[in-house]
Amino acid sequence: MIKKNPDTATIPVYDLRHIDAEAQHGLMVARFRDYLDQHYPHLRRPHRHSFYHLVLFTKGSGTHTIDFETFDVRAGQAYFMSPGQVHSWQFEGDVEGYVVHFQPSFFTAFLHNDRYLERFAFFSGRPERSVCQLPGSELGRVAGLFEDLLEEVRLGKTGAIDLVRLRLLEFFIRTDRVCGGDKDDAPAPQKSLLLRHFRQLIDEHFRELRLPREYAALLYVTPNHLNALCRDLLGTTAGDLIRDRVLLEAKRLLTHADLTVAAVADNLHFDDPSYFNRFFRKYVGSTPDEFRKQHLHL
Fold first, then answer.
1. Taking the alpha carbons of 143, 144, 147, 149 in that order, is the dihedral positive or negative?
2. 13-183 has which fold?
3. Cβ–Cβ < 8 Å for 121, 181
4. Which of 86, 105, 210, 263 shows the greatest Cβ crowding within 10 Å of its Cβ?
5. Mean pLDDT to the nearest integer, 157-184
């Protein structure tokens, strides 16, 4: 049975030892059906993990939600989640496939570039990039990779964990070829790097810094340059990215029943709870209380 992390003050967070007490080397690999039989009752409600989580569906229907965006379950679909993202499931009938969990440190001792996973859009933390529908011609091949993972973990021979890392990296690269976009149309590396740094700064400072010019100063660029970068690469403004991150955290906090709306507003550094209510309703279309009731009664 999964235990909630007692130290968290927000939405329930599960770490790897609570999911699988016997997980070794910061890794868990399982058939999805077996995983559901053990954990599904506890994971239907919104929750998040302290580790990377990925699933390949080979059969099934229903829906799953990543950071409050809902996706239909289909055979051949893979989804990827980075630590901290929120998700839940609502399955219909039998669902089969494979599930892998690994700690952020799982690849760092293996790869010279400890930020290698950042090259894959599905690990960007953006829900719309987290799901990939693999064609039938590719599904059999990647399913074979997961069968190899299960076998290596089961046998535990010398070098098994390194082979698991290699098979996972092959899966990431094959998936990226299908859903990673046209590399010839990719933005210049310096633009991508600047945008990634901007997103990282937002994640670190969104509670206290709300203005694009404050982030532009940290990045040593002008506010106009930062705004132009966001419009060029994402079709949105720097201010929109900051606002959306605040709203995402508000949604995450509101799905914890023990926090009042006023406490959520305070956590996000809103001086006036009534202003937080107006802000949330303007951009989400419902009040914080309405949003909470909808998601706590899933």
1. negative
2. Jelly Rolls (2.60.120)
3. yes
4. 86
5. 88
272: DSSP letter: -
Q: Tokens 């956590």 sit at which residue?
A: 267
Identify the bridge partners of residue 2 per DSSP, sorted by sequence position: none
| Helix residue ranges, H only, the chain | 16-19, 32-43, 136-155, 160-179, 189-205, 212-219, 223-234, 238-254, 261-267, 273-284, 288-296
Q: Does the pTM exceed 0.85?
A: no
Full DSSP string of 165-229: HHHHHHHHHHHHHHHS--GGGPPPHHHHHHHHHHHHHHHHHTTT---HHHHHHHHTS-HHHHHHH
* Residue 2 pLDDT class (50, 70, 90 cuts): very low
Which run of H or of E encompasses 38? helix 32-43
What does the block give as tokens for 199?
């997103």
CA–CA separation, 18 vs 288, rounded Å? 30
Is domain 189-296 given the CATH code 2.60.120.10 in the classification?
no
